[in-house]
Amino acid sequence: MRGVVERGVNNIFTVRCEEGRYLCRIKGKVLADSNSEYNPLAVGDLVDFMPVSDTEGLITARAPRRNCFQRWNPKGDANQTIVANTDLVVCVCSTQSPPFRPNFVDRVIACSRNVPVLILLNKCDQAIDEQSLRRLELYRGLGFQVLSVSALTGEGLEVLRGVLRGKTAAFVGQSGVGKSSLVNALTGTVRQKTGDVSEKYNRGKHTTTASAMIDAGEFTIIDTPGVREFSVWHDDPLLLQSAFPEFAAYSPGCLYPGCLHDSEPDCAVKKAVDGGLIDPDRYGSYLRILDSLKDEKVPLWQRRTKKEHSNAGKNSQRS
Ligand SMILES: Nc1nc2c(ncn2[C@@H]2O[C@H](COP(=O)(O)OP(=O)(O)OP(=O)(O)O)[C@@H](O)[C@H]2O)c(=O)[nH]1
Ligand SMILES: [Mg+2]
Ligand SMILES: [Zn+2]
Known about the structure:
Elements: E1 2-9, E2 12-17, E3 20-26, E4 46-51, E5 56-62, E6 68-73, E7 78-84, E8 88-94, H1 102-111, E9 112-113, E10 117-122, H2 130-141, E11 145-148, H3 157-164, E12 168-173, H4 179-187, E13 197-198, E14 203-204, E15 212-215, E16 220-223, H5 268-274, H6 280-293, H7 306-318
Parallel strand pairs: 3-5, 8-10, 8-12, 10-11, 12-16
Antiparallel strand pairs: 1-2, 1-4, 2-3, 4-5, 6-7, 6-9, 13-14, 15-16
Helix pairs in contact: 1-6
The structure holds guanosine-5'-triphosphate, magnesium ion and zinc ion.
Guanosine-5'-triphosphate is lined by residues 122-123, 125-126, 150-152, 173, 175-181, 194-197, 204-208, 225-226.
């Protein structure tokens, strides 16, 4: 049987199919083709499973993904898929508490593989500063859809419903921006628990702890746990440029084919930044992400896992 993963906690996956829902484990604990990844399955994955009772089953295979939202998990030392097979990644931000962070948005764009990103500014009942507004305009100019809403007052929600209609959308963002509040406001029922924002640190309290797919009739939302930062997935660094579409007009003019626009000579992208044609903060974001990808170039044998580190510590105490 074929179904979609709605939720997964402690390696037990809720799989929905036409016949209903089944709680499934992975047959034999390892899924083919998922060895190098942090987690074999993500919410949104299509899977084959065999029912073992009316309510339980065993997952035998994962269908190829048409796209995903993926981050680098530094602790696990592997790419981690947060959601798969969505029509849209909605990067939820807030005006204040927590404050709008453009570099966070840049990372969300870079973590989205083959899926469009909608930038959703929540809490528009609160004021936003001029600089953030300019950045949102910049995203619009780059071709990203940008919407302002308020889960609290309902402002902009009709427009958002229109955009979501017929789609499956993953809501991602920092803790406390109001992802779960938006799910509740959009569905008109309390489907997800919400939490407040810490006054001391002006950030959320990680209320949502696991991704969950919510069927809202006209559309489907995947609510995800808030994070402080997304590390960008590790792969060919050239692929990172798709998250910076403003480079494309200039990169053919770079001296070296495959230029990463970092310290290469005669780089047309760098010249465009210096000439004020590319936003320097976006370029700065790009360089920081590029730099973080270099960690991967350390050969595996030089990178120790946490366990090896603690073992090494024990050994040195002994000697
Ligand atoms: N003023 C205002 N507050 C809002 C709005 N939407 C959500 N909030 C508040 O923001 C806080 C955090 O909301 P949540 O929905 O729990 O945030 P979240 O993004 O799901 O957070 P995590 O689950 O921790 O990732 C709550 O106190 C909400 O009441 C809004 O549009 N305006
Ligand atoms: Mg939440
Ligand atoms: Zn270049």
